[in-house]
Amino acid sequence: MGGSAGSLRRLSDSEGELISQESEEPRPPQDRRGAHWKNVVGFWILGLCNNFSYVVMLSAAHDILSHQKESGNQSHVGPGPHNKSSRFDCNPVSTAAVLLADILPTLVIKLLAPFGLHLLPYSPRVLCSGFCAAGSFILIAFSRSVPVSLCGVVLASISSGLGEVTFLALTAFYPSYFFLLTSPEPQDPGGEEEAERAARQPLISGEDPEAPERKPDSSSGLSLHEKWTVFKGLQYYILPLILVYFAEYFINQGLFELLFFRNTSLNHAQQYRWYQMLYQAGVFASRSSLRCFHIRFTWTLALLQCFNLVFLLLHVWLNFLPSIYLVFLIILYEGLLGGAAYVNTFHNVALETSDEHREFAMTTTCISDTLGISLSGLTALPLHDLLCHLP
């Protein structure tokens, strides 16, 4: 009996070892493909939801400011001009005011993020982002004044900024930009992953390409000197992105309101909403195009966007475009450039940064678009006052 009990115990132990070994075997390729597409869809949904409140606030900027139009607080905007002494149909306050309320809190979050946000776990960050987004819509829906509405815009900005920093930093733990929901596992050497790793060019000079890559657990272990070195290496991507976003948001919040065509069936508010919709459609299409087109030299996109700014500013001043539909095409093209600059910048940073620096690099690069947008809002405010006082 004792011998049989011992043999049963040994059999049980051997079965346990066998089960343990089987559980440690890598998943079959089909399971990995399923996880891949799950991650792709999951990250796409998170990015869409994160930008939703921010985009809605900018698209409704003309209506939010219309609270000042009448004491009755009618949220619609009629076709008649607000400033009859000007050839432009101007609101008393530029839509750039909504832009600043929608971007300055985000700028503060992104400036502080590289220095301590990693200490806060990802789950509380996502919950905070969601609550702020919901609060922004509730506050604006029941608002009776412009200041209260702008407070709702600030909540939307906090939600978008915190979410963007969080989701982009999470991509440091996955083999490509799109992976998110399934926890990352050690990748097999060879194949597409090996080719992509071989194509990476480190942003930090003097980095040994033969040194083993560290698993990117957190950016908290980087010294200030390492962070500064990484930041300097990122300038090739940060500066063009700042320029792209300065130009396009100067157009969006500084010129859209002034691109008013009186010879159409659309009133001013409707024209503004169409401008915003077409811009966002272009952004959406180009941000989803990375698998089809990869642009290495993002400086080209920055120069093209600046040309758009100069061209539309000349039209606002000289009024030489005969039809609003030409402006529609230019704005759609503007959105395509902006979305392409954004997605290709972060893709290039992800490829060309070593594993231990990638989380910090992605978080730091987030500052680029926000800084460009903030500068455009500050510049658009005095331009609005200057042009709206012209006879």
Automatic annotation (TrEMBL):
InterPro entries this protein is in? Answer: Battenin_disease_Cln3 (IPR003492), Battenin_disease_Cln3_subgr (IPR018460), MFS_trans_sf (IPR036259)
Highest taxon listed in the record's lineage: Eukaryota
Keyword Oxidoreductase, does the record have it?
Answer: no
Comp. bias (Basic and acidic residues): 24-33
What is the membrane topology here? Multi-pass membrane protein
Where do the TM regions start and end?
A: 41-61, 122-142, 149-174, 234-251, 297-318, 324-343
* GO cellular component term of the entry, any: lysosomal membrane
Q: Where is this region: Disordered?
A: 1-33, 186-221
Q: Which cell locations does it reside in?
A: Endomembrane system; Lysosome membrane
Q: Known Pfam families for this protein?
A: CLN3
Q: Which UniProt keywords apply?
A: Lysosome, Membrane, Transmembrane, Transmembrane helix, Transport
Write out the GO biological process terms: lysosomal lumen acidification
* Main subcellular location of this protein, as a coarse class: membrane
Family to which this protein belongs: Belongs to the battenin family.
Protein name (record) = Battenin
Q: Which organism is it from?
A: Pipistrellus kuhlii
